[in-house]
Each structure stands twice: as structure tokens, then as C-alpha cells.
Amino acid sequence: MSQTSTQEVTKEPVTKGSLDVLDQLMKPEVQESLTVLVENLPKLAEMVTVLTKTYDVVHGLATDQVFVEDLKGGMNEIVKPIQEKAKGLAVAAMEANERAQEETATIGLFGLLKMLKDPQVQKTLRFAQAFLDVMGERQNQR
Known about the structure:
Blueprint: H1 16-26, H2 28-39, H3 41-63, H4 65-102, H5 109-116, H6 119-141
């Protein structure tokens, strides 16, 4: 009688996911992409190192309560004057609107000439003229 030796071959079941991966790896464009990735691994590793260090610094600053409070204080010092000026302009605009609504008199030619003597009107007209000059110069540069 002959002896038969049996060998047990262990095979992992092939799943649909592994077939998809194998199919993807067989595509030429995927193989080219992998080649490019392998060739650029040193650069990628260097970039990841830099990004990791940057992340560590930013994370450290973001979790440092003293730094966050100082940053908030600094921003408030910048924003608060702008905010107050904007509120002042808004209040002045509302007050001017109320006055304009109350005034029903027609402004004639002599009224317009009288207004031209007002220093605020002169300042506004000079600004408008300078603004138009700048815009004209920029348009001519194109």
C-alpha cells in the first residue's frame, strides 16, 4: 500500500474588496501613479515632517490660553476703534435722514451756491474730485 502524504494548503478566502484592489493595481495609470509616489517618497516624507512640526506649533498656540487671550485683546484693540467709528457714522446717517425727511423746502440755485461755501461741502467735493482723478489714472494705465 502506498502512503499518501497530504499537504494542507491554507488559502485565505478572496473577498470582493481584495479583488477590487487587485483590479485597480492592474490598471496602467494606477501603476504609473504608484511609481511617481515611490519616486517622490523622500520629498513627501520631508513635507509630512514640516507639516507635522507646523501642526504641533499651531496646536500648541491654539491650546495656550494666555496666547489666545492676548490675541483676543489685540484684535479688540484693532476692531474697537473701527467699530466705534462705524457706529458714529451710522448714527450720523440716521440723524441726517431724519433731518432730510423733516425739511421740505426746495433747494434752489441760490441755496446750492450758499451750500458750496460750506467747508464740509468743499471737503467732500475735493475728495470726490481726487477720487475721480485716481480712478481715471488707473483706467488709463490699463
